[in-house]
Amino acid sequence: MKVLLLGSGTSTGVPRLAGPDGPDWGDCNPNEPKNRRTRASILLENDAGSRLLVDTSTDLRQQLMANDIHRLDAVFWTHDHADHCHGIDDLRPFRYGRGGPLLGYGAEETVRRLRNRFGYVFAGQFGYPTIVQLETLDRLKMCVGFGVDWCLMRHGPAMSTGFRFDCDGKVVSYATDFSEISDEMVNLFYGSDLLVVDCLRRDPHPTHANLSMSLELARITKAKRVVLTHLDKSMDYATLSQEVPAHVEVGYDGMWVDV
User: Fold this and answer.
1) For 208-219, how does the pLDDT look when each residue is reduced to its tens digit (9 = 90+)?
2) Which positions of the chain have pLDDT values less than 50?
3) Where does residue 26 fall: left (phi above 0), alpha (psi -120 to 50 degrees), or beta otherwise?
4) Distance CA 234, CA 65 (A)
5) In the Cβ-directed half-sphere of 32, how many Cα atoms lie within 13 Å?
6) d(Cα 143, Cα 167) in Å, to the nearest integer?
7) Domain ranges, residue 190
8) Helix (H) or strand (E) holding 244
């Protein structure tokens, strides 16, 4: 498998808009391209060329164009917060020329909320076809050559979905937007070849993992390789890279990882 970090930033991106003197880079060096972060999303590709997209971030069109991605097979959503789903309309071109809609999946509550907000995507409208055939994850075991497993994760007062994807004897896990570590998460992510994990900042946060929690999840799941994502403006790429263990990497937009 290969994994592409389409976006590695928090909900406001880095730099944050509208600082007192222009874009707010916080502690991030504006001269380091890896500090320029769009909203969090990943893409997985297997040896057969099948592609899964996880989340339709606010910056989806920009991300797909920047990485020359012009074909998708299925879409998964972690949850319905704006930074993870408001780029959904950019899926429309992927419907053109297809015999049917894209496959789409989410946990039951995520599916319900997405249907309420983006009905035209999942049911068509005014003669336009359905873009995504949206289903719950309850009975899903395989999708276009990828084994799929999942669990719900506490995300402050809300819930997010953590995913485990298996293909060709390798395991990729994706855990973004969580605020505590559960036994279900440890069991799901245990032994991952790659764990892409939420790491908002160093200080504790009520709805996201901080650096110590991210490293703790990596430790107890014995993940072989770890990539940090959903980073805010306090997380300078070069500085953070010097703090983390050797098997942990600071993610950045456009980062490809061979698994």
Assistant:
1) 999 999 999 999
2) none
3) left
4) 27
5) 18
6) 10
7) 2-258
8) none
